[in-house]
Amino acid sequence: MDITAALQKLGLNTTESAIYLYLTQSGASLAQQIQTALALEKVPTYRALKELKARGYVEALGEARNQRFAALPLAKLLSRYDEQVSELREAKSGLEAFMSRLTDQQSELYKQNNIKIYEGKAGFRLWNEVRLDKGVAVIRECGTDGFLHEFFEPKEIRDYMQRYIKRRVAKGVCIRVLHDNSEPILDYDRSNPQILKETHTTELPRDMRAFMSIFGTQFGFYTQQQGRYVGVIIDDPMMTQMVTWLFDALWDNSEKA
């Protein structure tokens, strides 16, 4: 990595890096000298000098009318960099402690507000089973679930879903699926009256790695966080009504697969 790239890693832009390097090689200089030597416009030159001075990369010498600017030695910058690294380590440690306390508080808050968290393979299965235990006639769902193969072997997830579909059909629960139209539609993804399934296609965000479902007065989603499966189910009639309205609006403006 060259010195310009290194300076930019420290937060200097192209103009600021060029001025700092010029001053280290040419010594204290007037703003006009810097501007001429580097073929810069007046306003960007003064703006960059002001920023470099504020951040401690250069110092101003003399009276305002004939003020000269000098670069601080690289050794001093390295010393300041080491101080910043130490401060960042301390800040990181403090943030980690805060996040740990926040996670504990959130878990307690979830319990108090009818929000349940499901983790791991067992959590995925339980997340699905909850949907069948609510006595609903229709389950709505959308999103992408390809990332599930990062947790399950292909045969494992296929066998489980086949058993799950049989239980769902036995309970007479219909499912409506909004499928991403950028992904291929496989035979078992299409509408199929025999398994009480309706499928529509719509455009979903390409980087979506989450799956949402709405059932009765509850809605839930699952995703991947820090390399593990995490699912959530929220029991809130008003919020569920709003999410259902949004789903139905998308459903009415999508195409049957």
How would you describe the overall organization of this protein?
- The chain is α+β, with helices and mostly antiparallel strands.
- It has an 8-stranded mixed beta sheet. A 3-stranded antiparallel beta sheet has the order 1-3-2.
- Helix 2 packs across helix 4 and helix 3 packs across helix 4.
- About 15% of the residues are buried.
- It folds into 2 domains: about 80 residues, Winged helix-like DNA-binding domain superfamily/Winged helix DNA-binding domain (Arc Repressor Mutant, subunit A); about 160 residues, Endonuclease Chain A (Endonuclease, Chain A, 2-Layer Sandwich).
- Strand 8 and strand 9 form a beta hairpin.
- The chain contains 8 helices and 11 strands.
Which SSEs are present, and which pair or pack?
Blueprint (H helix, E strand, L loop, with lengths): L2 H7 L4 H13 L2 E2 H8 L3 H13 L3 E4 L6 E4 L2 H39 L2 E5 H13 L5 E6 L10 H17 L3 E7 L16 E6 L7 E6 L2 E8 L2 E8 L1 H16 L2 E2 L1
Parallel strand pairs: 5-6, 6-7
Antiparallel strand pairs: 1-3, 2-3, 4-10, 5-8, 7-11, 8-9, 9-10
Primary descriptors:
257 residues, alpha+beta, Arc Repressor Mutant, subunit A, 8-stranded mixed β-sheet, 3-stranded antiparallel β-sheet, 8 helices, 11 strands, elongated
